[in-house]
Amino acid sequence: MIDALPLAPERIRAFLDDRRPPTPCLVIDLDTVRESHTRLREALPEARMYYAVKANPAPEIIRLLAAEGCGFDVAGREEIDLVLGQGARPELISYGNPIKKARDIAYAHRVGVRRFTFDSETDLETIATFAPGSGVSCRILVDGTGSQTPFGHKFGCAPAMAARLLVRAAALGLDPEGVAFHVGSQHLDPAAWEPWIAAAGDVTRSVAAQGVALRGLNIGGGFPGRYLVDPPPLSAYADTIRAAIARHFDHPVDLAIEPGRVLVAEAGVIRSEVVLVSRKSDTDDKRWVYLDIGRYGGMAETENEAIAYRLQTAHDDEPCGPVVIAGPSCDGDDVLYQRTRYDLPLSLQAGDYVDILSTGAYTQSYSSVAFNGFPPLRTYFVGGHPASVPSEAGEVGEFAGRHVLAEFEGVSAELLDDAPFLCESLQRALEKAGATVCDMTFKQFEPQGVTVLALLSESHASIHSYPERGAVFIDVFTCGRVADPELAVNLLRDMLNAGVSRISVIHRGQEDR
Questions:
Q1: Is 479 one of the annotated active-site residues of the chain?
Q2: Can you tell me which residues form the catalytic site (predicted)?
Q3: Catalytic one among 37, 464, 465, 501?
Q4: In this structure, are residues 511 and 494 in contact, taking their beta carbons and an 8 Å threshold?
């Protein structure tokens, strides 16, 4: 189980082929998130796990991991509120960001957070003032060589300074737990952890010699996802870490890890559409393939081509040739891959789909707010039912679900005053999104404007149009897990050819009781 690969692409592709949501979109398979959490838990059962929320802060993922008993590594007040709102216990939250405002430290302490990481004397003193008695770890500076996305020198302090600060932490009335470090994200060499475990052991002994006993070791994240290059198995990382701790510590340690990518990357697939295929000259052997997603729409980790995603098309068994892959915006830096070798089918053309695999981490959370007019990356979720409670295919009616509110502008006044068209569009969008329409009615206003109301087995939906403004308001609420109100709203946006859209999603009730 530890080194087994999840089946997310197959399950996600079934959703994509059935629902055909507008592209680009990200689909997350929540069952794979659970499977990945279990794999890592089995590989390092002795470690306390704090999910790095920044990897993918979707409430659906946070809720699932909280139900699995996972802790959370947060960067600030907003992430604290997020995880608490999804059922996390405050004692399982680690405020791991060493760059913190005093008021945010005070807030964290007030809501029950008792574990902090620091790498400077100033931050340590601020923690002592606003979070008295808390447990603290000092992050040491590491060489991130070998990491696909290293942290440089932004975080951590020299080991000698860490030893001094941990002794001072005890003098300030805090509970010094131990040393923390992070080897950098997407690390493909399990041996990279050894020298920093050794450094942490040295700090621990130095602090002990000054009368302060440390019990903890936080080795951060860095556990990789699967991209073009297959990583070593998780068991190789676990074996190396365990052996290094045995070599460099003369007592048992309270081990902590902060995984992010390894829990969510393989749970996601982005479906994109080819916008254009072209060449730069008649003799150019490389085609340029422009997708409807780029660096500002969720593919930020292609900067410097650090992360090379696996791609799939419907024509992969046909002859292929080299390509440059770029995004759709008018920014010259919106090129995904020029140096990394990619070959795509020679038959590829505008309108074809390109699926980008292992995109569950650092994609949607990086997507911009409508840069160059392109909307943020839409995200859908499949799976996620509690493992111990089989789901019924038609289960609805529980007062818990998603409430989607949307405002579209730039819509044709003629369409917005066409009641039959609006009724038909709402019904088609709802049924495509898996909702059951029980009844529908409308009211045509004078001199113009239409309200459409749909009663659903899952709850309700409505359209309110304002033709004179070219605007329309959409309200879709569905209980349970069967229907996807976000998909319905996005389908309506495309049917109406809206120029501007503002969409908000409210999670009502607790879907997992």
A1: yes
A2: 459, 464, 479
A3: 464
A4: no
